[in-house]
Amino acid sequence: MPPTLRSSTMTPSHRHARASIVMSLLLLVVLVKESHSDSTQTDQKAEGRLTHVSLEDLGQIEVTTASKVPVKASRTPAAIYVITQEDIRRSGATSIPEALRLAPGVEVARIDSNTWSLGIRGFGSALSRSVLVLIDGRSVYTPLFAGVYWQVQDTVLEDIERIEVIRGPGGTIWGANAVNGVINIITKNARDTRGTMVSTGGGNLDQGFVNVRYGAGNGKDFDYRIYGKAFTRGPEFHPDHRQFDDWRMGQTGFRTDWDLHDHDTLTLQGDLYNGDVGQKVGITSYAPPFMTNVEQNAELAGGNLLGRWKRDLGSGSDLQVQTYYDRTNRKQSNFAESRDTFDIDFMHHLPLPGRQDFLWGLGARLSSGNATQVVPTVAFTPNHYTDKLYSAFIQDEISLAGNQLSLTIGSKFLHNSYSGFEVEPTARLLWTPSPRQTVWGAVTRAVRTPSRIEEDLQLTALLSPNPLTFFRVTGDRKFSSEHLIGYEAGYRTLLRSKFYLDIAAFHNNYSNLLSIEPGTPFAETSPPPPHVILPFFFRNGLLGSTSGFEVAPDWTPTHSWRLRGSYSYLHFDLKKEAGSLDASTVSSTQGSSPHHQVTIQSSLNLPKKLEFDQTLRYVSALPAQLVRGYWSADVRFSWQATRSLDFSIVGQNLFQPHHAEFGGDPGSLVGIERSAYLKMTWQTWQR
What we know:
Oligomer: single chain
Mean pLDDT: 90
Number of strands: 37
Structural class: mainly beta
Helix content: under 10%
Number of helices: 9
Radius of gyration: 25 Å
Strand content: over 45%
Low-confidence stretches: 1-52
């Protein structure tokens, strides 16, 4: 049994931790009655706190991810969940992936101190394949590995207005790779961040962090902010005591917002980052000892610049142009890459006669990557390649029965460098039998296009030293796009302004999924010594389905207490197509996502400007990763000393000294440790 699996066994320290959580829950119940009696007075003094956002207000939040135009969350024909700034603050999260644990149906597992696996409705991996991630409309997807490097997706968390999470395909609006979901991180308008904010703190794992932001404006039509942040994080628990995964990053950036006149707005923003992350990487060579685990920091640097112009044309019509440039540099012990991405998007929103809401748009993206060979067994051929993506989309929302019944139809049309022309249509039906009830259903087609890893990579690894045998995975440009046809339905209801329920169910049919197919072994004499190669190729030999549902209740028993929860169920049924000889991809894919996830969150406002927040999570086993199911708990306690100053203490993963969440690094599973940190936030406001 791996050592990290034994860590889940109950010990005296485990029992003490669980007893502490039970005592905290009992304390919560006792304090609810006292806080309820003082809630009216407390609410009047606590500007912007929990009680000022009712469940009805949450349903009225305007979201843009599902349709690219503002729509009330309660009237969105998709499985959408909004993580607000207040949710992030009270969760105690210190990174974007940790904040995403709040959304139902999202699988977040920490691999080590600086790496996460993230998926939506299955297919979790360190690069979050088939999930499109955006920051203020800028795609952070890398076409090198068809995924997201979470270590460099960051900003000051206090500057995030909300995170919109779409569970299910979003390709009609956002295009390729929005297969299983879309995560759109939206930062605040500069007018909402006037003044000065400083937050700093540290603990046993988050050893030290500081965030500084200053915002101002001319008081009329121009606002700006600048920020800087830095942190250092220690390694997690390693049974072999090889503490390689420390993490240090620094980042700075700005945002400006102009109201040019009554009809035009202009936004400019940008970021620069630099840092290093500790990694352990297995490297194969053609000379003894043939295989070595190398512990070395990966060097990360980059930046981006985005501009967005929007014009109001009147009568509900508007147009928008957005463009950005993104630069990334990544150097690891086994490969290095620099990449420049240029993107431009145009969108026109036009109401039509007959109560129709019409959208159309065009886009183009050029992403030029230069891969540097660091070791002879990892190579991209050619080393330089420019991905080209051109797209167009149309969407029409048609009212069938006033405001109660509407049909949304549309399609994305795109052309990429690898698989050519692709079409991603959708049809979505929305029915609102009453102002507090919503029923919706959807059928959507989405695609994940090939990446350089499937097309151009040649990876060689040791199989046996005697006789000397290597296996080699090769991209030979015969991998085509993965396809999804998704069926979804959902129901939302608000009961008596205190209880909100969101239910979504899905069934996804996949075809052309990635498989690793063996070829005919052959002998190779160069480079010496002579050896045998077992070739493998990227092909489309898998198909199957996933199905499941998510339930997310939200209850406010009193003005000062909010309870939220979610339960997510996932069922996999993948198999090989006729002729496929893939031996492991089905089991590794199905066994790397939990069948069950449970989250319970409690947020309580106490007298004297105190806050008490608790989160309880359960994640079922991941057999392919040798990870058992586990329970985990986080607790946050804060005190608003003055209107400008507050202090908080956060404890995370309190049930065990450490527990494994996902595999990924060579060697033993990394244990995610129990941790705590203190934080101080000072903020002034400027009108």
